[in-house]
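INFO batch 0412 | record 1 of 1 | parsing
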Amino acid sequence: METNSPQMANDEKRKAAFSSVLAAFLLTGLKLVVGIMTNSLGMLSEAAHSGLDLVAALVTFFAVRVSDKPADEEHHYGHGKVENLSAFIETILLLITCIWIIYEAIERLFFRKADVQASTWAFLVILTSIIVDISRSRMLYRTAKKHNSQALEADALHFSTDVWSSCVVLLGLVGVFIADKFPSLGFLERTDAIAALGVALIVVWVSIQLGKRTICALLDAAPKGLDKQIKKCVENLEGVEDCHSIRIRPSGPKLFVDVHVTLDGNQTLTAAHRLTEKIESEIQNISPDADVTVHPEPVEYKAPSDESKRE
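INFO prediction complete | emitting tokens
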């Protein structure tokens, strides 16, 4: 089908990545301006978070464009690893954000007081941010799942965690607003810094999860259980005696699968080739678009023993 062509898939991924860049740019600018106006650490931490999201979105946009390039003389397995590298860079950026947020939040909680203003603009920006983040994360998740793109999935993860962190900041602003209206509840002024810590903890958790996955992909860790699934499927095919030496290498949205199979060594080369093509097709039913290489081996010939010869 035309809608499933590689060019259509590439265009859809690039469109999703570019819309992510625009959304991150808009939110970063709004949060930064309002954060400076209100002196809200929660808002400034969100601005920093969104700023790194903008960098990450740009990295993702670049990665999606590069990863779709076909294999060449220097990159025999294509450029899919660029997506995995992009997701790893996003993880590092998130952790850098956390260090600053945690440091500033502790300073405000224990060592110095900050005058935070919970203005109408602050509430409007946070609510706008939540709406945009929900919309973008859903769209990115759909595209990432459809095209098995780890870079787009990492970007979607950023926006989905932004929703939760924005909600935390919103609670912090509510606390500051209440403290301003009711002086007896002045302790609620600290909710802004506490909200910032909450954002940092959310980001740390997301960074750890994302980091584990990207490192596994960069180290060519095979999807858990896929080798057993392939072995069982291939050995159930008529004419296949055994399937072994299965090697799986992820590269961005693509998998490279190598398998060794033992076949009847007396059959013609044409028949053996047809069987290897069938094996490739069955593996691609398990993992669509996988690049499969099948190495056929003849069943070991066992010479008859002396006893069987006498019989």
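INFO post-check: The mean pLDDT is 75.
INFO record closed
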